[in-house]
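Trying the structure run again after the queue cleared.
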Amino acid sequence: MVARLIDEDPESAYGYSKVALRLASRVAAVREAAGFAAYANQKYSEALGEFRAARRMTGGVELWPVMADCERGLGRPEKALEMAGAPEVHKLDKADQVEMRLVAAGARRDMGQLDAAIVTLQSPELASNSVQPWTARLRYAYADALLAAGRESEAREWFAKAAESDKDGSTDASDRLAEMDGVEFVDALVEDEESDEGTRGETEAPVAAAEGDADADVDEEQVDVVREVVEAGVEDGDGHGDDKSDNNDNNDGDGDKS
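Done. Tokens:
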């Protein structure tokens, strides 16, 4: 549940991790999961303690970069840099070494050392044309550092490279690139809804007026029809009355004959 929720609902993931700790605190995987849940909620001191516990249980070094990043989160970038130069780094696989480089560059930036951060990110992995799982994030961090240092043209180039290699959307390189180019994205759905509301407001009065005119026309027609019916009825009544008079006259005549 921690793994399932940590990206979308880190607070709930943290709650599950606390339950897991109560049930199995001596399991390394539980301590590691609890560490990542605390890390996702920016509880860096708690996360660091859990990562250290998991490392003692397993003897592995794969948590070294995230432990260093916890030091950054606690406001200790010097400690993070010290960890970046420790022997444990040489035991990391390529992906974790790149992660450690990202943490070290971030620590340099925390200390206001922008040029040093840029140099820290310059590596064979950055220069490589092959796309690896870490490529987009490495290029993005380099572009961001260049932009912070005021090297906008170079930053734009590397944001473009980051966007090109970011197949799963792990960064917002495309948005940053568009922002630098002055491109503004508009939510077409919202714009259409606002346009519809404006159009509806403008047409309500004319439509109501038209409906009123239509009602007036219908009333006049009804009046005309009723008038015609009444007049026709009166005429029919007079005609029938004349017929009756004629019949009476005939009857009178017949009576006289009789």
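The chain has 13 helices and no strands. Worth checking whether this holds up in the mutant runs.
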